[in-house]
Design brief:
Elements: E1 9-12, H1 25-37, E2 42-44, H2 53-62, E3 71-76, E4 78-82, E5 99-103, H3 107-121, E6 128-132, H4 134-137, H5 139-156, E7 161-166, H6 169-178, E8 183-187, H7 198-207, E9 210-214, E10 232-233, E11 236-237, H8 240-255, H9 260-266, E12 274-280, H10 284-295, H11 300-311
Parallel strand pairs: 1-2, 1-12, 2-3, 3-6, 6-7, 7-8, 8-9, 9-12
Antiparallel strand pairs: 4-5, 10-11
Amino acid sequence: MNSLDLGKLGFGGAGIGNLYRAIPDGEALATVLAAWDAGIRYFDTAPHYGLGLSEQRLGAVLRDKPRDQFIISTKVGRLLEPNDSGGRDPEGFDVPATSRRVWDFSEAGIRRSIEDSLERLGLDHVDIAYLHDPDVHDLHAGITQALPVLEKLRSEGVVTAIGVGTNSAEAALECVQAADLDLVMLAGRYTLLEQPGVPLLDRCRARSTGVVSVGAFNSGLLALPDVPDDAPYNYERAPQALVERARQLAAVCRDYGVELPTAALQFPMRHPAVVNVTAGATSPEQVAMNAARMDASVPDELWDALEAAGRD
């Protein structure tokens, strides 16, 4: 694995790309600044997030910071092409549909994707490039076409590290077995609630591939100390059985004086393959809360009790 030090907590840029709801520019920039002030030095984004808006907003803050003091990752696989059909983005971001996403795993497409990202960011390089959601489009093409291109770009020094970002532990495992990846960004599949990604993490540890854990709150199900009836899970309303399961975990945490989101945020770091937990935020207050939760003291006895609850 490349020796980039991401720190324990990273900043995820989907929220400042207006995921689900629009936030004003000033609030978005203040949120990124709050992450910097909280000591966060790893920032992740993607063209997919708000049709480039996340990259633009992140770059507006980071381009004024010393370039050797932060690490930034973006993603390849989706190019943004002009779109004049009007309307709003159909993929969950509250932005005008002035662009459309076009899958492109070719070398020319991946090189152009990085160049376009650099223009939006206003930076001269990104540190990490992830292949974004290859399983959503064509996993075989991602493995046979896109990953070799990323290996080539790393050898050329265009990027320092490469990886894959996905919601699927199974797809990520196939990628890890097929290519020399530095990192895997795994969303929602190794959390306090569920751990289907364990075979992947064990394989990553054996290959010295670092895992960046995202989605530690399972899209919101574990985000509050008291789990509401309408809590989300995997970007939809959670089934009642999962709500009850989350409430059981919250009750165990409460017995040890710890709030559920604190345990959820810290849990992934307990696996030796996990090198960073990256969490999104849409306000300075959320950033401060995430940082406080990551630094909070959690007794070892709680982890033992949660493991026992999981077996039960």
